[in-house]
Amino acid sequence: MQTAPRLEHPPESAGRILTARIPVVPLETTIADVERLLIQKHSYFDSINYIYVVDRQGLLCGVLSIKSIFRVPKVTRVKDVMVTDVISVRAAVDQERVALLALKYNLKAIPVVDKDDRLVGVITSDTILSTLQHESKEDLLLRAGVQRFDRDAVDPLSASVFTHVKKRLPWLLFGLLGGTLGAAIISSFEEALAAELLLAAFIPTLVYIADAVGTQSEMLFVQASAREERVSLRKYLKRELQVSSILALTLACALSGAAFFWFKSGALAITVGAALLLAVLAASMFAVILPWVLIRLRRDPAVASGPFVTILSDLLTIIVYFSVAEMVLQFLPVS
């Protein structure tokens, strides 16, 4: 079977991790012919979990499991017993989605086809397990604000001090920049803070809650995107808006009640409640749109789950909070 060189495919795509050394047979092949092929070339094949059936143009028509060839008469043709509902992926699909598909459908291998549905290779179970380990490690590092190490999982233990600093410092510097911008934004609302210092006491609460809801929204969307080749942004945003609205309204009422109970200020309760409501909605929408944009740009959406989205969400929350505070203070004194 002819296949394009792996380097022609995008990095971390299905095309980069496939093997073409698999049993492939025409539609008219008999079970006896399949058995002879496996016996003669078993040392050549990288995987014999499935036998792949193609037509004269090389289009993938079906598969046979290794078990099934021993359950039917040897004169049976493969086209009469093959499974035609085949789970396959395009060569350009991200390797993480391939691994998730294998888990979802309990498959030992995933066939890879080109844009014309011609079989180009297969991703084996060993490669799928290796991909899962690689992707999970990469995602965990990104969420912690650490750039990926170049080799395997022992690198964090064996890497030099300079390597650790190089991998961790960039996101920390970005966080420092974000914190400085946050301070500048807060200082721009000097009049609101001067009117009531209690507003500053609620900044950590609003920032934390908005971050938490945004993280939940982002994680669920990234998982859905990894499982499905294309997720409808409009449909997903509609459902996420419904869920986030209920969460935001519940949390806003709880925070407003607490603020009024402790500080006896209706204006403060309205301010923190309204700000939390808007901040949570904004954070949840932002947490879905950002990874969607990264996916459209063919970038890893896990980048959006780390310090990057956290810092931007924090800045957005602060702006929303003090904007609401200024509007409320125009009509009601806080104290």
List keywords for this structure.
single chain; CBS-domain; Tetracycline Repressor, domain 2; 2 domains; three-stranded mixed β-sheet
Which strand order spans the largest sheet, edge to edge or round the barrel? 1-2-3
Cα end-to-end separation: 78 Å
Named CATH topology of the largest domain: Tetracycline Repressor, domain 2
Quick one: how many beta strands? 6
SSE class: mainly alpha
Assembly type of the shown chains? Answer: single chain
Question: Percent of residues in helical segments?
Answer: 55-70%
Binned strand content: 5-15%
CATH-defined superfamily of the largest domain: SLC41 divalent cation transporters, integral membrane domain
Classified by CATH, the class of the largest domain is Mainly Alpha
Largest sheet: 3 strands, mixed
Tell me the series of helices and strands, N- to C-terminal: HEHEEHEHEEHHHHHHHHH
What value does the average pLDDT take?
Answer: 82
Task: Assign an overall shape.
Answer: elongated
Poorly predicted runs of 5 or more residues: none
- Please tally the helical runs, counting DSSP H or I stretches of 4 or more residues: 13
What is the gyration radius calculated from CA atoms? Answer: 27 Å
Number of domains: 2
CATH architecture of the largest domain: Orthogonal Bundle
